[in-house]
Amino acid sequence: MSDLTNDLRLAIDTGKVSFGNRSVSRLISTNSAKAVVVAIKGKKEIIDDLTHICGVAGMKVIRFNGNSLELGAACGRPFSVNSLAIIESGNSKILDAEYA
C-alpha cells in the first residue's frame, strides 16, 4: 500500500490526474485516461460501474485498499476521493507497477 501511496503522490505532483466519478467516466469514454484508481471500500455501484467501463475500454484499474477519505489523504487532498484518473503519470511508475 505504501508504494501505491507514494506513486499516487508522485503522479499527482509531476503528472496530470483528474478527480471525481463524473470526470473519470468522461475521461474513460474519450480514452484520455491511462489508468483509473478506485477506493475499494467506497460505494459498490460506482466501483462496479467504473470497473466495467474500464474493462470494456481495456484500461488498467488500480484498487486502493481503503475508503474514499483514506484515498483523499493519500492524494494529499483535504476531501474524500472515490476515484481518480491518471492522464499522465509524470515521474511515477504507477502505470507499470503491480499492487497487491
Give an overview of the whole structure.
This protein has a single domain (2-88), classed as 2-Layer Sandwich (60s Ribosomal Protein L30, Chain: A). The protein contains four helices and four strands, in the order H-E-H-E-H-E-H-E. It has helices spanning 2-14, 21-29, 44-57, 68-74, and strands spanning 16-19, 35-39, 60-64, 83-88. The chain has a four-stranded mixed beta sheet with strand order 1-4-2-3, sandwiched between helices. The longest helix is centred in the middle third of the chain and has 14 residues, at 44-57. 28% of the residues are buried. The model has no long low-confidence stretch (mean pLDDT 91).
List keywords for this structure.
43% helix; 100 residues
What topology emerges from the helices and strands here?
Elements: H1 2-14, E1 16-19, H2 21-29, E2 35-39, H3 44-57, E3 60-64, H4 68-74, E4 83-88
Parallel strand pairs: 2-3
Antiparallel strand pairs: 1-4, 2-4
Helix pairs in contact: 2-3
